[in-house]
Amino acid sequence: MGTRAWALLLVLCGTIFLEGIDVAMLAVAIPSIRSDLDLATDTAAWVMSAYVLGYAGFTLLGGRAADLLGRRRMFLTWLTVFLAFSGLGGFATEGWTLIVARFVTGVSAAFMTPAALSLITTSYEEGEQRNKALLVFAGTAAGGFSLGLVIGGLLTQLGWRWVFFAPVLLAGALLVAAVRLIPHQPRTAEPENGERQNAERQNAEPENQEPEKSPGRPRRRTEGFDILGAGTAAAAMLLAAYAVIRLEHGLDGWQLTAGAALAATTLLVVFVAVERRTPTPLVRLGILRTGSVVRADLGALLFVGAFFGFQFVLTLYLQELRGWSSLQTAIALVVLGCDAILAPTLTPRLVTRFGHAKVILGGFVLAVVAYGLFLPVGMDWSYAAMFPTLIIAGTAFALAYGPLTIAATDGVAESEQGLASGLLHTATQFGSAIGISAVTAVYGLASSGASAGSDPDATLSAFRAALIVPVGMVTLGALLSSFGLRSRTKPPTAGAPAAPATAAPATAAPTTVAATASVTGAAIPDPSANPTRQASS
Question: Which carries the bigger pLDDT value, residue 182 or residue 454?
Fold first, then answer.
């Protein structure tokens, strides 16, 4: 790649880095924010959950909007919104202001991140060049989250408001560079019905499809925008995200959780009916018949969910049971960011030699080993005893996350790259929320006994029970990803461009990883319900 191509890639990767540090820094700063603004526990929890709700609720719409309304336009517009509302959070003096700021920031990430990913997949030629760009994107996401933990700890010492102001400075620099580097894209005509049907056939058989060469602007929609589909999709995703977040409460208020889930399911059925009948669907349902895309998205949901769930339990173990400070915990977890180095260096070589499917499966197997090693965690484990789990988990992320991202977009028509990116980020956001909520619910149920709050051994047993969740998720993901081996019998030859992937994907990282996302989309533990926390603080 030339200098300008690398500069464009760095700007687009800077967006996912921005999202990663934004989520991680807030996770570290939330105790200080709660103390300074005198927030109730549930309000503090919603400061975190609001971001997940906005991100997961609008990612699908955001991905398709990039295809239909312009990737450059969506990227620049929502990066500006991200900048503005991050700054608003820094000036907040009330809990509701923070919640609104975090919700809109999540919505802006839902539009901005798929636009960035689809700009990469349409600006770099499919094969070795695009794979390299996507692996750099994946490594940057993880690096942003890992560095965000440390940076957040340092900035919180200066004042928690800097956790909101620092992303404003980075977003401003990215916006200036993006205006100069992202080219204006010419419109292309909307394909006729026969051409659209042919594109659907190509998507159903991605191995036979030739990649489109021009990044292009969205095709003209001669019959209008799918307003009803957009509305029902956003409402269904919002309610589904809310139901997932409420899983953290276990059986407490289960009627509300069940009601939200039922309403989300009903709206999803309505959405499918609308998309089947409209001449210009927001989501072409045929893309869900592409096995590699579905397998990739489900793999991303399970892998990212397990990663964030494990990290959340580990953070509670170190801070609530062991009494480590937030800065000590952040520094200890930096080793998880080794994937920021391995993803753009080691992973491309493995993908070239063995193919996507085998590398993804290898990542899942390493994750099973990493989380399994931590199951017998003791009360006085040294950092040396924890280190093997941390380094193996980081390596697993490097092997699985980038190839999953490639597989989720490979073989998809250029006009639907935003949609494919939106599906991927929707999966990762729901995965992070499910992982965190599930481990929180299991921990709450396991520690609900009378002695669980005051007996450190009972609390440790509850942590061990919660750790079963990420182990189960990556085990299921390994089984799912093994099906991808059947669709790729020959790895690409060394030095040759990689063939279209048929295995599965994974930001948010942290995206958002992001997910992301949402390292503490679960409820902040209530000090009054956990004497161990009081003792450690």
Answer: 182
Query: In angstroms, rounded to a whole number, what is the distance separating the alpha carbons of residues 216 and 237?
Result: 29
By C-alpha distance, which of 55, 151, 39 is closest to 510? Answer: 55
The phi, psi pair for 39, rounded to 5°, reads -85, 145
Using CA atoms, how far apart are residues 402 and 342, in angstroms rounded to an integer?
A: 10
pLDDT score of 487: 55
Rounded to 5°, the CA angle 482-487-492 comes to 105
Contact assessment for residue 372 and residue 389, using Cβ atoms and an 8 Å cutoff:
no
Q: What DSSP assignment string belongs to 257-280?
A: HHHHHHHHHHHHHHHHHHHHH-SS
Contact 490, 354 (CB under 8 A): no
Q: How far apart are CA 527 and CA 44, in angstroms?
A: 13
- Other CB atoms within a 10 A radius of the CB of residue 94 amount to 11
Q: How far apart are CA 379 and CA 309, in angstroms?
A: 20
Report how far residue 307's alpha carbon sits from residue 395's, in angstroms, rounded to the nearest whole number. 12
Q: How far apart are CA 478 and CA 299, in angstroms?
A: 8
Q: Is the pLDDT of residue 505 over 60?
A: no
What are residue 353's phi and psi, to 5 degrees?
Answer: -85, -40
Contact 225, 68 (CB under 8 A): yes
| SS3 readout for 399-413 | HHHHHHHHHHHCCCC
User: Taking a C-beta distance cutoff of 8 angstroms, is the pair 124, 130 a contact?
Assistant: yes
Contact (CB, 8 A) for 155 and 25: yes
pTM score, whole prediction: 0.75
Local confidence band at 86 (pLDDT 50, 70, 90 cut-offs): very high
pLDDT of the residue at 69:
86
Question: Residue 509 pairs with which residues in a beta bridge?
Answer: none
- Cα–Cα dist 72/119, whole Å: 8
Question: In three state form, how does the secondary structure of 32-88 look?
Answer: HHHHHHCCCHHHHHHHHHHHHHHHHHHHHHHHHHHHHHCHHHHHHHHHHHHHHHHHH
Dihedral of the CA atoms 389, 392, 393, 399 (nearest 10)?
Answer: -170
Burial 497-513 (b: 16+ CB within 10 A, else e): ebbbbbbbbbbbbbbbb
Provide the token pair at 171: 């977003």
CA 68 to chain centre: 23
Instruction: Answer yes or no: are the C-beta atoms of 145 and 510 closer than 8 Å.
Output: yes
Q: Terminus-to-terminus CA distance in the chain, angstroms?
A: 51
Q: What share of the chain is helix, strand, coil (3-state, %, to 5)?
A: 75, 0, 25
b/e per residue 158-191 (b: at least 16 CB within 10 A): eebbbbbebbbebbeebbeebeeebeebeeeeee
- The pLDDT assigned to 224 comes to 54
As given in the structure block, the two tokens for residue 536 are 């450690």
